Amino acid sequence: MIKTFKIADITLKNRYVLAPLAGYTDFSQRYLASLYGSSLNYTEMISAEALFYNSKATLKDINDTYLDKEFNNDSKLALQLFGGDEEHILKAIKICEDNASYDFLDFNVGCPVNKVIKQKAGSYWLKRLDELYPLLKNMVKVSSKPVIVKIRIGFSEILDIDSLIKNLNDTGISAICIHGRTRNEFFSGNVHFDVIKRAKEVSNIPIICNGSIDANNFLDILNYTNADAVMIGQNAIGHPDIFKDMIFIEEGKKIESKNITNQLDMLIKHVRLMYKYKDSRLATNQLRSISLKYLKGYPDANILKTKLIRCQNENEYLTSINEFKSSLNS
């Protein structure tokens, strides 16, 4: 029996969540994650600043959430906002409610990249805790959807986790997703799962665990931290079937063996989705990175990799992939 978990009054069908990743977790990635079993998907980070100033591209990104409701109705969706200005953030929530369809509103208090930090956003909020807690209370009041916060465990040093979690609980948010590194640790080094374990012990709302989680370690991490769910980021890019693997492992089933043909079939689906629902130029540019993720670990595909980074449109991508796929059977 697959374990479920609950945020507010919404039950998620399993404990496996797709993380928000800029440039990756658009509708096509979310669709594939849902196809293979994810219970909750995150949008890419949405800039409150861009929404406040009526960015057409950002409005298009949040409009795409209607596609999730049309095609991914078995999975839930969290729309993730980031920003450093309270007025703009609260205004952005209203814009999202008028122009998007989602189940949860997530606020990013974890992104470590410099261009976000310069806006005093993302994990910079960990240096603004006296402002963060009142902001979250106001977000909960303004949002008609349950609010989740995605955080790191500190900026340069690990914070007093008991105080952090208790204060977050008191804001009225419905769940906390924790990446078990500080901002300055970025994505390297060991994840502090002991800190996440302690967070779960003191929290009265669900805790989602994030940081270097894959199909080999997720059950051990769930058992150790007692977290309500795990969030998968980089390990789902190029491998959206990781969610199917995790479900199979939890059920005690043998996962299907991995091979290049299966990877190419998933990549073809991804290419078609990208060009169907996204501007052609943007799809082409993003696929140069995404397509290589599907081929990582397959040295025999180096010739195809060289072709893919030069593709200029959907036909060139599909032709290159299908020709390589045919060569495998010749």
Describe, in plain words, how this protein is organized in 3D.
The strands form two sheets. The protein has an eight-stranded parallel beta barrel, surrounded by eight helices. The protein has a two-stranded antiparallel ribbon with strand order 1-2. It contains 15 helices and eleven strands. The mean pLDDT is 95. The chain is globular, with a radius of gyration of 20 Å. With 330 residues, the chain is an alpha/beta fold. 47% of the residues lie in helices and 14% in strands. The protein has helices at 27-35, 48-52, 56-63, 65-71, 86-99, 114-117, 129-142, 161-170, 193-202, 218-225, 242-251, 260-277, 280-295, 302-308, 314-328; strands at residues 5-7, 10-12, 16-18, 40-42, 46-47, 76-82, 104-109, 147-152, 175-179, 207-210, 229-232.
Features:
330 residues, alpha/beta, 8-stranded parallel beta barrel, two-stranded antiparallel sheet, 47% helix, 14% strand, globular
In short:
With 330 residues, the protein is an alpha/beta fold. It has helices at 27-35, 48-52, 56-63, 65-71, 86-99, 114-117, 129-142, 161-170, 193-202, 218-225, 242-251, 260-277, 280-295, 302-308, 314-328, and strands at residues 5-7, 10-12, 16-18, 40-42, 46-47, 76-82, 104-109, 147-152, 175-179, 207-210, 229-232.
